[in-house]
Automatic annotation (TrEMBL):
<keyword id="KW-1003">Cell membrane</keyword>
<keyword id="KW-0472">Membrane</keyword>
<feature type="transmembrane region" description="Helical">
    <location>
        <begin position="108"/>
        <end position="131"/>
    </location>
</feature>
<feature type="transmembrane region" description="Helical">
    <location>
        <begin position="12"/>
        <end position="31"/>
    </location>
</feature>
<dbReference type="Pfam" id="PF00528">
    <property type="entry name" value="BPD_transp_1"/>
</dbReference>
<keyword id="KW-0813">Transport</keyword>
<comment type="similarity">
    <text>Belongs to the binding-protein-dependent transport system permease family.</text>
</comment>
<feature type="transmembrane region" description="Helical">
    <location>
        <begin position="182"/>
        <end position="204"/>
    </location>
</feature>
<keyword id="KW-1133">Transmembrane helix</keyword>
<dbReference type="InterPro" id="IPR000515">
    <property type="entry name" value="MetI-like"/>
</dbReference>
<feature type="transmembrane region" description="Helical">
    <location>
        <begin position="143"/>
        <end position="161"/>
    </location>
</feature>
<feature type="transmembrane region" description="Helical">
    <location>
        <begin position="71"/>
        <end position="96"/>
    </location>
</feature>
<feature type="domain" description="ABC transmembrane type-1">
    <location>
        <begin position="72"/>
        <end position="261"/>
    </location>
</feature>
<dbReference type="InterPro" id="IPR035906">
    <property type="entry name" value="MetI-like_sf"/>
</dbReference>
<feature type="transmembrane region" description="Helical">
    <location>
        <begin position="239"/>
        <end position="261"/>
    </location>
</feature>
<keyword id="KW-0812">Transmembrane</keyword>
<protein>
    <submittedName>
        <fullName>L-arabinose transport system permease protein AraQ</fullName>
    </submittedName>
</protein>
Length: 275
């Protein structure tokens, strides 16, 4: 039995290693290509080591392309603000649905579940028309306000708070804390695993979003990085070396966020999935 178990584990690890290598190769090729010249990239040869190593691509996007730092700043501002607002509002809504008794709570929860079934593409045109009426097209608020809450993560936080020990809240109430004090000083700090999982998903969704900026933004000064990267593609020629360099810069914040919150991530998923 032990021999069979070892063989099974060895096969499992072999499959996982092969899958990891297959997944990692495209990223390594993109990283290598960011240090190649355009001529080498379009030559048709596939190599993970550049024949002519150059930093000219990074110099081009940061120095010669004047709008690239602005695009990076726009993406950081929008993604960070959207993430913070989602963490606050989704958590408050999830806590209210899990703990508070108020008229219409169950119908409201069913409406949130129904929203989960609606594809985001269906709401693009209505969102555009609403933002046009408000005069929020081509603005930061047009990018932030429609995405500052998310039905998926309201549901996720509700599941977390349903399993949250009531005894801690009762002890806080005995110590004189009100509902808001209990939530912000007791419940929210102990919800770090769920908040970390939510932060990763929300930040990545906002950071990688292409369709929303494409619909809402028209001023190049307000472009986010995904939209700005598209400007490196022309009708007759695409500067793939610049695109690869910009993609590496684009990927770095997501890797940092994931590395920072990784220890909470699996824990948060397991807590919000059930008891």
């Amino acid at each position: 039995m032990r021999k069979k178990t070892r063989i099974g584990k060895a096969l499992l690890y072999a499959v996982l290693v092969i899958y990891a290598v297959i997944t990692l190769i495209p990223f390594l090729w993109a990283l290598s290509s960011s240090f190649k010249t355009l001529e080498e990239m379009v030559s048709g040869t596939i190599s993970l080591i550049p024949n002519h190593f150059t930093l000219e691509n990074y110099k081009q996007i940061f120095v010669e392309q004047e709008l690239f730092p602005r695009w990076l700043l726009n993406s950081v501002v929008i993604a960070v603000v959207v993430t913070v607002l989602n963490l606050l509002f989704n958590s408050m809504a999830g806590y209210a649905l899990a703990r508070l008794q108020f008229p219409g709570r169950k119908p409201l929860f069913l409406i949130i579940l129904a929203v989960l079934m609606v594809p985001a593409q269906v709401t693009m045109i209505p969102n555009y028309l609403i933002l046009k009426q408000l005069g929020w097209l081509n603005s930061y608020q047009g990018m932030i306000v429609p995405t500052m809450i998310n039905a998926t993560f309201i549901f996720m936080m509700r599941q977390f708070f349903i399993n949250f020990p009531r005894e801690l809240e009762e002890a806080a109430e005995l110590d004189g804390l009100g509902r808001f004090g209990t939530f912000f000083r007791i419940v929210l700090p102990l919800a770090r695993p769920a908040l970390a999982a939510q932060a990763i998903f929300v930040f990545m969704g906002s950071w990688n979003d292409f369709m929303r900026p494409l619909i809402i933004l028209s001023d190049p000064q307000l472009f986010t990085l995904p939209l700005g990267l598209n400007s490196f593609k022309g009708q007759y020629i695409s500067y793939w070396n610049y695109i690869m360099a910009a993609s590496m810069v684009f990927t770095l914040p997501v890797l940092i966020i994931h590395a920072f919150f990784n220890r909470y991530f699996i824990k948060g998923i397991s807590f919000t999935g059930g008891k």
